[in-house]
Amino acid sequence: MKRNFLTNFLSFILGLVIVASFFIFKTSLQAQETQPTLPALQIHPLPTTLEKWQNTNEQGDYFSSLVSLPIGALIWTQFPINVYLERPIDSDTTTASYQQFQKWVNAVQTAIQEWNIYLPLEEVSQKEIANIIIKRDFPPLSSTINPDGKLEIPRARTAQTRYDLEITQNQPATLIHRMTISISPRLSELSILSAARHEMGHALGIWGHSPVETDALYFSQVRNTPTISVRDINTLQKIYQQPTRLGWTIPNS
């Protein structure tokens, strides 16, 4: 979908660092002649897959640890969710670079398949129609000024997720979002899988971290790579029951 006109948008960058994950908040403002009125916060019907989910073990969730956003919950309302995954462009499949790239692809695809159980995902070959774009790339570093006025360069990150807001071109105009995930190529296959699993959780709406190390969205890397937990899905289910401005039409559009 293309932007119909310039609109205010927020970009949040959520990265997985070498030792711990942390947030970088970035706000971008684009000038435009008229400012659109955003949709009111409203609740969408719960996706069928999450509606069927039952927390039989009553293990709780970490919803209270998540970040509250002005646009409400970062949820998807149209399914399946289209995912674009970068692939090798080298036609020679025998090269070391191709094989390394393919190992990265395989690990990321495994994470996508794991989350597909809980929300419908479909891999697409066209980036333009993707809701989630996954790039084999080094996450950019953003320096900051500390309270003492000194420049601080953050530690290298291995993965990050950001979102952008858009207004659809079709009528009536609708507020939507797109997620972009960057995962470093310099990781072991297990680390790629762990990073992809974690970042996909963010891309599906879990905008924050768990304080429990057995959850896939735990805030730091751990020795024993956690799989998607009951608490992760309990949290995801609760997120999709929250009000959002996403997926609703722009007033008077």
TrEMBL record:
CDD domains attached to this UniProt entry = ZnMc_MMP_like_1
Q: Name one GO molecular function term.
A: metallopeptidase activity
Superkingdom of origin: Bacteria
**What range(s) does the Peptidase metallopeptidase domain occupy?**
72-242
Gene3D superfamilies tied to this protein: Collagenase (Catalytic Domain)
Q: Which GO terms describe its biological process?
A: proteolysis
Q: Which InterPro entries match?
A: MetalloPept_cat_dom_sf (IPR024079), Peptidase_Metallo (IPR006026)
Task: Return the protein name.
Answer: Peptidase
